[in-house]
Amino acid sequence: MKAEIAIIGGTGIYNTEIISNSQKLDLETPYGKTSDSLTIGEFNGKKIVFLPRHGKKHSVPPHKINFRANIWALKEIGVKRIIAPCAVGSLRENMEPGHIAIPDQFIDRTKDRDSTFYDQGTVAHISTADPFCPELRDLTISTGKKLNYDIHEKATQVCIEGPRFSTRAESNMFRNWGADTINMTLFPECVLARESQICYVAIATITDYDVWAETAVSHHEVLKTLEENVEKTTNIIQNIIPQINNERNCLCANALEGAI
Fold it and tell me: Are 137 and 104 in contact (CB under 8 A)?
């Protein structure tokens, strides 16, 4: 059972209806269990796999996601590209709830996450100067614009440990650092993908203004806005997949060259 493109479903993205001829797969990994079963099938002539980041019932909190098991399993079945929807808060006035950002940089503020496959025996220093696949980013941005969505082409996304939301002081600090959006799952997912030489793009749905805006964030508000944006995210994904070429001409494909 193989797949070339993976969708890692974030908060609100659990639907696998676009996948035809689907089968479930549970893989044993050296790092333990994945967040849930892999759903493997086809869409528009492409072999794809779906993995819900938090589990189908959203039972896995962000700081307990087994990121290494998830990425290892996707690599094992042949995945070369990952499309990763996620929910984010906004740190900028012009990045409004309902908009979509395509991050090009991140700031790691997590505290206790295994963030490399190379922690025993072999040392690898991969470059994350540009941590997201440029080809997938360009394709996602152009697709979002064609669909007339409010797309932000660049965003520095800060990833916090969670599961709590930020204090006002932290939120304002992140703004002063130059961060644009904030969430709890981007890191180390994108870095582990880079170590695995898998292309990775995040589709960040903006659900709320973070607490710098003097309004306390509630999970209810986040889910309400997210539900309204699920259709947009799904449309982008469905339009991206048929346009993905088999050949890769990006830095991701050779990320380990000179790193080990």
Answer: yes
**Tens digits of residue pLDDT in 58-116:** 899 999 999 999 999 999 999 999 999 999 999 999 999 999 999 999 999 999 999 99
pTM: 0.94
What the block records as the tokens of 124 is 């690898």
26 is known as an active-site residue: no
Question: Going by C-beta distance under 8 Å and a sequence separation of 6 or more, which residues neighbour residue 116?
Answer: 124, 188, 191, 192, 195
**What's the pLDDT band for 214 if we cut at 50, 70, 90?**
confident
From 36, 104, 180, 210, the catalytic residue: 210
From the list 36, 104, 180, 208, the catalytic residue is 208
Sequence-distant (≥ 6) Cβ neighbours of residue 128 within 8 angstroms: 191, 194
Number of H helices, E strands in the chain: 5, 11
DSSP bridge pairs for 40: 23, 49
Helix axes of 186-195 and 67-76: crossing angle, nearest 10 degrees: 30
Q: Could you tell me what percentage of the chain is helix, strand and coil, using 3-state DSSP and rounding each to the nearest 5?
A: 30, 25, 45
Query: Taking the domains of the chain in order of start, what are their residue ranges?
Result: 5-254
User: Superfamily assignment of 5-254 in CATH?
Assistant: Nucleoside phosphorylase domain (3.40.50.1580)
Is 210 in the active site? yes
For 128-159, what is each residue's pLDDT tens digit? 999 999 999 999 999 999 999 999 999 999 99
